[in-house]
Amino acid sequence: MKKARVRATKSRAEPKADVTAALAALERASSKKVREGMVRFGIPTTNALGVAMKDIQAIGKKLGRDHDLAAALWETGVYEARLLVAYVADPARVTVAEMEKWCRDFDNWGVTDTLCFALFVDSPHAWGRARAWVKRKAEFEKRAGYVMIACLARPKRLGEDAVFLDCLGWIERDSTDERNFVKKGVNWALRAIGRRNKALNTASVALSRRLIESQSPAARWIGRDALRELTSAAVRKGLPA
Questions:
Q1: Is residue 38 located within the same domain as residue 127?
Q2: pLDDT (tens digit, 9 = 90+) per residue, 116-136?
Q3: What is the SS3 assignment for 70-81?
Q4: Fewer CB within 10 A of the terminal residue: the chain, N end or C end?
Q5: Spatial CA neighbour of 158 closest among 127, 137, 118
Q6: What gap in Å lies between CA 178 and CA 225, rounded to an integer?
Q7: Are residues 145 and 232 part of one domain?
């Protein structure tokens, strides 16, 4: 198996040995089968080792939180090293500048989603970046905004209904974006908001019905898929008041 090429890092000197050790641990956990399987899920393998997510999480748990190490891991450009960042970086220390830099580097849904739901969502800058990213033109930057909204809409997270009603407006605006990863991100956000409570379910269902009547194939798909889930007996039964 061709090894991923590691680029030089500009991080402080101390983490360099740790980066080498972390990459070595990833190499040991890699397999040709996992790497080949990535193709089926649309993950580029040019700079990937082929490591299962459970093994990446286990390596991250062993390394612990080390924000400087996370920054150095990102600079390697290795797919699994960037996934590892989500479990090594400190959400309390991640800066807006770092979030912006890493977001601009997003080039696949795997890294995009993992950093959003395992790291960025716990940052004090989460809502600010979500609002900024949904306005972006680049496919994975815009997707990141909607993945952030989906994560922030998890039922146990705090947030006023008015904030999520604003998000429904952004969802309606971008529902006509035909790009696959944007379309799926928008759909995820709509479904997440609609599962939050009864009032937001009602608003999300109404939006889903409007989207079904759209001239846009993407909007119709988003609406149909969300409506099927949000009107299901299982979802309705579990909705908080």
A1: no
A2: 999 999 999 999 999 999 999
A3: HHHHHHHCCHHH
A4: C
A5: 127
A6: 15
A7: yes
